[in-house]
Specification:
The structure holds two protein chains of two kinds.
Chain A (H helix, E strand, L loop, with lengths): L1 H22 L3 H21 L3 H25 L11 H25 L6 E2 L8 H11 L1 H22 L5
Helix pairs in contact in A: 1-2, 2-3
Chain B lengths: L1 E2 H21 L3 H26 L3 H31 L13
The chains are: A mainly alpha, B mainly alpha.
């Protein structure tokens, strides 16, 4: 019961943050509401027993990535967005299409329940050590490859953001 | 006692909101944040399946998704800075050089 109550509280916060992201005109307001979404997602991960994922969600997403976003918004002094005439087509076609898609997916999920199990709070446990065993044994090669990916991303970011020869 | 479909439904709603943001927003930084929202929605369904099906490897995949998202954010924001330097705008409607 507690699981259900906590799920609904943080699911509502999550969806409200996502809707606020779309409703705000200024990018800094959108960034702050995205941080709300990520924080409440971290709580949902904790409810599911995924402690490691919840921790790196806060550290990497809500911390590092969003700091980068806010930094760039403030660096470029981004103002409120302006709408041109063409962009209203996306409003009139996009909102009904996406609303019907979401309704269809949710309806089919409720209709054909994928798993009959009901999870109680604290039943599923994703401690750090079993995840670490998987990461450093079964997925060792992909883990090492991600370090190469990060290195390439760092070099790409430095090359792209440096001032040109002028 | 929460069924799996609640988590998957929340994930679907968040993903659709991300796609909608990508369609209706015109600021390139906000478009980027919509992509992050979609990645987060997919992560939520990964973690939900991991908890309900007792497969911890899904959490490792969440880790990889986060690594790719962080790399993508770094490179993408560098591209945005380079774009702003050459065009002095963040509005995607004004960056239409490749349009026919």
């Amino acid at each position: 019961m507690l699981h259900l109550v906590l799920f609904f509280i943080f699911a509502i916060i999550c969806v409200a943050g996502a809707v606020n992201l779309l409703a705000q005109r200024h990018p800094i307001d959108s960034a702050l509401s995205l941080i709300v979404v990520m924080g409440s997602l971290a709580v949902l991960y904790l409810l599911l027993g995924a402690e490691f994922v919840a921790a790196i969600q806060i550290i990497v997403y809500a911390g590092a990535v969003m700091v980068l976003f806010v930094f760039v918004i403030m660096l470029l002094n981004a103002g409120a967005e302006e709408h041109s005439g063409r962009s209203y087509v996306a409003w009139f076609l996009g909102i009904p299409a996406l609303a019907s898609l979401a309704a269809l997916v949710v309806y089919s999920l409720v209709r054909h329940e994928p798993s009959s199990r009901r999870l109680a709070l604290g039943e599923s446990q994703g401690y750090v050590s079993p995840v670490a065993h998987l990461l450093f044994k079964d997925f060792l090669l992909p883990f090492e490859v991600t370090s190469v990916l990060i290195l390439i991303a760092i070099m790409g970011a430095v090359v792209l953001a440096q001032r040109g020869e002028d | 006692m929460v069924p799996l479909s609640y988590y998957l439904g929340l994930s679907a709603i968040l993903f659709c909101l991300g796609v909608l943001g990508f369609l209706i927003k015109r600021n390139i930084i906000t478009l980027f944040m919509s992509i992050e929202l979609m990645l987060n929605a997919v992560n939520l369904s990964f973690v939900a399946f991991s908890a309900y099906l007792h497969k911890l490897s899904a959490q490792v995949f969440v880790f990889f998704v986060m690594v790719v998202a962080a790399a993508e954010a770094a490179v993408g924001l560098a591209i945005i800075i380079a774009l702003y330097r050459s065009r002095q705008t963040l509005n995607v409607d004004r960056v239409d050089l490749l349009k026919l």
